[in-house]
Amino acid sequence: MVAQLLGLAFLFLPTSLVTFTTYAQPTVEINQNWEVVYQDTRVYGVVGKAVILECGPTLPDMYIWSFTKPGTEAIRAVVYDLGKGTRIQNLAKTLGKLTVISKSAAVSIEKLPLAAHGLFTCQAFYDIDKEPKVYYYYVHLTVRVPVSKPYLLMSDASPVEGSTMWMRCNLENGTGPIQYLWQHETRSGNISTFAQGNTSVINVTDVNRNLTGWYRCVASNAVNSESSNRLWLDTIFGPDIPQIDVTPYSITERGYSALERETVSLLCQAHSNPASQYVWFYNNSQVYTGPQFTITKILRMHTGDYACLAQNTYLNTRSKKTISLTVYYPPDGSPTCSVEPALNHTSLRLLCSWPGGFPSPSLYWTGDLRQEGRDGADTGEQTNPLTNTAILLSTEGLTSNNTLFTCMGTHLALKQSTQCSTRTYIPPAEPVCFAYVTNNQQYLMLSCSWDGGAPKALVWWEGPGGQGKGGEENSNILILRYGTARSGKPYTCHAKHPLLVQTKTCRLTLEAPVLLTQRRVVSVYEGSDVELSCNLRANYLPVNDIIWFNNQGVDVQGTSKYTLLRTSAWANLTVKDTHEIQDSGEYRCSTSNAVGGTEINVTLVVKRHPMPPNATLVKVVYISRQRNEVELEWQVENEEEKGWTGFILEHVWLSERPGRRGSSNDSKEDTEERIGPPVWYRNIIQDPEVRSHTISRLTPTATYQFRIIPVNHRTLGHPSAAKTPAEPRYNVYPAVIGAAIGGMLFAAILTALLLVFIIRNRNNNPRLHDMLFGLQHSQSRENINFPEDEVVGGSEGGIEEIGGLASPGATMALPRASSPLTTSPLSATPTTSQAPPPGDDNEPVSVTITVKATGS
Ligand SMILES: *[C@@H]1O[C@H](CO)[C@@H](O)[C@H](O)[C@H]1NC(C)=O
Ligand SMILES: *[C@@H]1O[C@H](CO)[C@@H](O)[C@H](O)[C@H]1NC(C)=O
Ligand SMILES: *[C@@H]1O[C@H](CO)[C@@H](O)[C@H](O)[C@H]1NC(C)=O
Ligand SMILES: *[C@@H]1O[C@H](CO)[C@@H](O)[C@H](O)[C@H]1NC(C)=O
Ligand SMILES: *[C@@H]1O[C@H](CO)[C@@H](O)[C@H](O)[C@H]1NC(C)=O
Ligand SMILES: *[C@@H]1O[C@H](CO)[C@@H](O)[C@H](O)[C@H]1NC(C)=O
Ligand SMILES: *[C@@H]1O[C@H](CO)[C@@H](O)[C@H](O)[C@H]1NC(C)=O
Ligand SMILES: *[C@@H]1O[C@H](CO)[C@@H](O)[C@H](O)[C@H]1NC(C)=O
Ligand SMILES: *[C@@H]1O[C@H](CO)[C@@H](O)[C@H](O)[C@H]1NC(C)=O
Ligand SMILES: *[C@@H]1O[C@H](CO)[C@@H](O)[C@H](O)[C@H]1NC(C)=O
Ligand SMILES: *[C@@H]1O[C@H](CO)[C@@H](O)[C@H](O)[C@H]1NC(C)=O
Ligand SMILES: *[C@@H]1O[C@H](CO)[C@@H](O)[C@H](O)[C@H]1NC(C)=O
């Protein structure tokens, strides 16, 4: 490339008419030796213009102007003046319009032709009269041609960037040397010199886009300077690597970022001539054509690579730029806080987590974090500070039980920060220890729990002989094989909470159970129910069920003979309807636990009631001649003994009176009475005070015998001697009728009273009730349906320990006529209240009474 500057190029004024004449300084020397003086000058003329050729400063006496054409030797005269006037030669016509300037020897040439170019010689002669002097003035006339208007040629007016081209400044006329200057005018009109030099062609290698613009060349020579018309040079280039502008602008180390739901605009620009065409790609698939790709409400799924492809359709070239755009979005919800123990439950670790979101949110803890600030290196701990933050707090400064810690979460896609908080507190109660046994008695479980703290407390077991269990949170169960537990040695549960410096403990000591009974020997009268009690001395660790074995050594569980009431602490065995032979004996109550077993014997003595005193019938007489009612009176020996509770009046049919027999074959009783052994019919009298009674509905034709038996509960006394009723005294008929009616009424009332009495006292004397109504061949048959007989309970005071000092059999259980409800549990003496149980009158009782009367 030509790049030589010629600063003065523009000083030429091409249109001005200038004569370039250089005069040599006249150096006339007086040469006394007759020597001819030679002087040289150079004169520059421009074709078509005028020029003056001087011949000495003064007018010589004679002169001759000659012309020597360049390249020839010949010197030919043009004009001369030998004192007789100027004589212009023909040659002068070829040299332009030549005239001699008056009063001088100088010649003027107008409209200088190119032919005038050559050496003009003026031979001048001075002082011819005296001492002539000869001068030769050589005038070298140079005729110059002004440069014509150049025109610019380009090898390629639309060169591709990087290629090579040339520009030529063509010129028809002009005398050299000619200087060329190339001007570049930008699109905006700024003109600058692109190149200059003495060659008309410039090579432009590696054309670039900056060359685009107007070009003209200026050709200059000594005469003038001419400028060509301008030519447009259009450099074809591009596209360059595109530039992508993201609005709003936010750049990170990963690339561009935008917040979700923003409107994001991607502008692509790639310099190119002709202008680029743009195509947008998202993750390599085309999404848009055009320079500006706008995504309204950008979403997180729009994260990815965005590529702009710029194409120069003329060159069929393309370029591409890819940016990565990340859409930031906040995590859902709010952070979650938790607190957990650290450093073996001596410190707290606060955990704050807020997963999701991009980039991860910033989390930091606020609250009573003095510890961290004071001792940051030891207690501050950061793990992945973006989604999670955890700090370690020593609890030494945290004296308050209930402290609130708050974790603040901020995310650049959220205007407001959100938070969560957590509290730390000590469990409200003390640790609780208890023990239990698995169903199959394989394992003993020692459980310890200390619930309700935040964070959870650490609970561990330490037992004798290395039996123990490492820490667990909130609760811990030490499992021991059933037989391996140690007796008498404490099992200690330790519980540690970070907020408490001290470790809490609770202890379990396993001991074999010890059983107690209130009475080791229990005596009871036959027929009553008796309760045998058995209870644990203390609240032992899990003890198996207390088991009662009866006097046969059989487990009483599930038998109807016995009622077993039990809790974990006691078991009461009720032996129902005691029998002297069957139920007396050693009863055993037994239990065991993981470290041992125990049992205790209770001796039950069932006694018969003592025989009631003898009674004697003192009066047995028919009330009337109808012989269907007999009045009886009796006496009791040893009335002071009071050992009876009632009487049984019995009568037996001995025989029928003759004459009445055949006609009375319709009576069923008659038939029955004649077959089988004699049967005693019974009338029960419940009142021990009664001494008389009337039996009615007898068969008048029959012969009876009567006797009385005193009754004491279940024990029957000796029957009295049997007596046949005596005939009544002779009575007047109305009296007999009245007595008969009275007797019937009396009997009816008695029967009713008896029933009421029995019903009311069935609880007090259930066995009597059963016995009396359950007798076979009763003249009266009652079906009395009661609710199941109540269990006769009650207790006598005085706890007696096995192996203790109390003498066995010191107390005796007596049959109780009273309700257990009215029995004082601590009373040492049996109560014999006859009062019916409260509310008994209201009990629903269904009574069906069938009384078969013998009519006559
Ligand atoms: C160049 O000179 C020739 C002869 O003097 C003349 O005829 C011609 O017109 C000139 N050309 C230009 C462009 O001036
Ligand atoms: C023109 O070019 C000159 C120097 O090259 C520069 O200083 C000037 O700012 C340019 N002017 C314009 C309008 O480009
Ligand atoms: C052109 O100019 C260079 C120097 O710039 C010179 O060396 C060279 O001789 C010149 N050529 C002509 C033809 O005048
Ligand atoms: C321009 O390039 C041509 C051919 O490539 C060469 O002949 C010529 O000398 C070069 N001229 C200049 C000034 O470099
Ligand atoms: C184009 O011109 C500009 C300033 O005028 C310049 O910074 C740039 O480097 C030029 N480019 C080339 C390819 O020469
Ligand atoms: C686009 O590419 C990014 C980065 O490779 C990826 O995370 C995103 O899931 C892609 N999106 C689709 C729609 O394929
Ligand atoms: C944890 O603490 C308990 C009691 O405070 C201690 O016995 C145990 O050795 C400690 N463990 C560690 C790993 O410090
Ligand atoms: C600690 O605070 C909790 C909650 O307020 C409360 O239930 C507990 O009883 C307190 N414990 C102590 C030891 O103050
Ligand atoms: C069982 O026996 C004990 C001791 O005699 C007595 O305290 C307790 O009340 C009895 N329980 C029942 C339900 O009778
Ligand atoms: C309990 O009675 C049984 C027999 O019934 C006897 O073998 C046992 O030794 C007695 N136990 C005690 C502690 O008296
Ligand atoms: C009661 O009567 C029986 C038989 O009749 C007789 O053996 C017994 O001795 C009598 N008892 C008294 C105390 O009289
Ligand atoms: C009494 O009954 C028995 C058997 O039922 C019968 O053989 C007999 O003839 C009867 N006697 C009279 C007098 O009806």
From TrEMBL:
This is Ig-like domain-containing protein. Residues 150-228, 242-324, 331-426, 427-509, 513-605 form the Ig-like domain. It comes from the Eukaryota. CDD domains: FN3, Ig. Residues 809-856 are annotated as: Disordered. The chain crosses the membrane at residues 732-759. The keyword Aminoacyl-tRNA synthetase does not apply. InterPro entries: FN3_dom, FN3_sf, Ig-like_dom, Ig-like_dom_sf, Ig-like_fold, Ig/MHC_CS, Ig_I-set, Ig_sub. Residues 814-834 have a biased composition (Low complexity). Keywords: Disulfide bond, Glycoprotein, Immunoglobulin domain, Membrane, Repeat, Signal, Transmembrane, Transmembrane helix. Residues 1-24 form the signal peptide. Gene3D superfamilies: Immunoglobulins (2.60.40.10). Residues 845-856 have a biased composition (Polar residues). The gene is LOC127363595.
